[in-house]
Structures are given as C-alpha cells and as structure tokens.
Amino acid sequence: MEGLELSSGVTRNEAEDAGDPDSQVRIALLDLGNKENITRCLTERGAFVRQFPMDTALAEMQAWNPTGG
Questions:
Q1: Which structural domain range is residue 41 located in?
Q2: Which of 13, 40, 48, 66 pairs as cysteine with 19 (C-beta 3.0–4.6 A)?
C-alpha cells in the first residue's frame, strides 16, 4: 500500500457544516478520510466545524475565518 493515494476515494464532494453556527470556536477540517466521530467529538465540545474536501485551497479555508486562522 506504500505510495497509494487513497484519500480521493473517501473525501467529501463539497464542504459540510456541523455544530452551532453561533459558536465562538470555528474549526476548518480538511477531509482526508475524516471519521464522523471526530466531528461529533468537536461539536459536542461546542465547536462549529466546516469539513472541506481534500482539494480545497488553503485560501478558501482561511476565507471561512476559522478560530486562530
């Protein structure tokens, strides 16, 4: 399996939001095979998470204005 690129088979096709949009904590998550439990753990702790597809440009993620970005 060394050298295989598998992320493109498991990434999402478009950005998806999870959690409370009014949260003070905004997390930009680049989906390279993200497990939904990770997203659930973040939202249960009060974060608003936008899950971006693997081919998303850094500038697009930063334009979303995540906390600490």
A1: 17-63
A2: 48
